[in-house]
Design a protein that fits this description.
Oligomer: single chain
Strand content: under 5%
Shape: elongated
Structural class: mainly alpha
Length: 182
């Protein structure tokens, strides 16, 4: 049920919205930017925590495998940031160049890549913490596996099931190029 319009399914949702292509792109862009704002706060905190680790006194005692895990985790977090911030740069660079449709489509793919990398970084961080805090060799792997499973269910399986269960809507109405202003 679409809580905004009282319609069931995507087709009812689209029929209830009488918006131009430009309005649809603006709405999609606003939704995407809001989602990225939420994610960016968390990734900034994670990177901050990861960046101070090498300067802690106990870091020198980390085993080589844990150092590799640390570097992989940091790399995934920084890469996630690159993908999650890129759409803002594109929007600024292409402002008023009538490219909002391309920006929204590419930003959608970047957000997906950024979320995958964020999930990898968070799993790596959990493994790293558990390996250091819990003196059992299997604790980090078990914790990381459980977190990866949680991400897989919450971020992939649940929304894909909902997506599969929803009916496809009609093709959006395409307006002339000169009507698009971004």
């Amino acid at each position: 049920m679409d809580v905004d319009n009282g319609h069931t399914g995507e087709s009812g949702y689209r029929q209830a919205r009488t918006e131009t292509e430009t309005e649809r792109l603006d709405r999609n862009w606003e939704h995407l930017i809001q989602e990225l704002r939420v994610v960016q706060t968390g990734i900034q905190f994670l990177i901050s925590a990861l960046l101070i680790l090498p300067f802690q006194s106990g870091f020198a005692q980390l085993s080589d495998p844990l150092r590799v895990l640390y570097l992989a985790t940091l790399s995934a977090a920084v890469s996630a940031t690159v993908f999650l911030v890129a759409p803002v740069s594109w929007h600024r660079t292409l402002f008023r160049r009538r490219r909002l449709g391309k920006i929204v489509a590419a930003a959608h793919r970047c957000a997906q890549a950024g979320l995958v990398l964020l999930g990898i970084a968070l799993v790596g961080a959990v493994i790293l913490v558990f390996e250091i805090v819990v003196p059992r060799p299997w604790a980090g792997v078990l914790a990381g596996t459980l977190v990866a499973l949680l991400f897989t269910i919450a971020w992939l399986i649940a929304p894909w099931r909902w997506r599969h269960d929803s009916e496809p809507g009609p093709a959006p109405v395409v307006r002339r190029k000169d009507e698009l202003d971004c």
